[in-house]
Amino acid sequence: MASLNVGNLGEYLREQRRNAQLSLRQLADAAGVSNPYLSQIERGLRKPSAEVLQQVAKALRISAETLYVRAGILDAERDMDEVETRAVILADPSLNERQKQVLLQIYESFRKENGFGAGEPAGYEQDGVVGRETGDGSRTAGGGDAAGSERDAGPRRTAG
User: Residue 115 has what DSSP assignment?
Assistant: First the structure.
């Protein structure tokens, strides 16, 4: 099988998997893909879909957007500094998920204020955090995990 132009993606995934101290099988199980398929991605023999990359990114707790750029799904020249900044924030082990999302929102607001970017923050939905748009167009983030998001989505009781 000839190698596709996704070797950089495969090498990066292998490095991230090893940093997370996961075996190929553990990552495949966590991402919901087959072990042989993930192995072929790491070796540059397969080009995964955006959906598979999103699942792998979520399992590795890294930015899916970074994987999209490395896979050639997003233009690498398109705000690479922004993508890298977001990836560093999302990969920082000293921050919890809620802090990461708040920091990304602040970063996005400064970029908008300075005339850059109008999209959703990287990882806004793929990291299991449900974002909500308020009446004034600003956004708030829910809890740091899927369970927290479901908990936040429930009805609220008011006193009185």
Answer: T
End-to-end Cα spacing for the chain: 69
In a domain, 142, yes or no: yes
Whether residues 12 and 62 share a domain: the answer is yes
Could you give the number of structural domains in the chain?
2
- Note down the domain range covering 23: 7-71
For residue 140, the surrounding DSSP H or E stretch is strand 139-141
With 0.70 as the threshold, say if the pTM is over it: no
Domain co-membership, 103 together with 137: yes
CB-CB neighbours of 30 under 10 Å: 16
d(CA 102, CA 91): 14
The number of C-alpha atoms within 13 Å of 127 and in the hemisphere containing its C-beta is 29
Describe the chain by its helix, strand, coil percentages, rounded to 5.
Answer: 55, 5, 45
| DSSP SS3 for 126 | coil
pLDDT digit string, tens, across residues 147-158: 333 334 444 444
Same domain, 67 and 97: no
Q: Is 26 left (phi over 0), alpha (psi -120 to 50) or beta?
A: alpha
Whichever domain contains 12, its CATH number is 1.10.260.40
What are the tens digits of pLDDT across the range 66-91?
Answer: 888 888 887 765 566 777 888 889 88
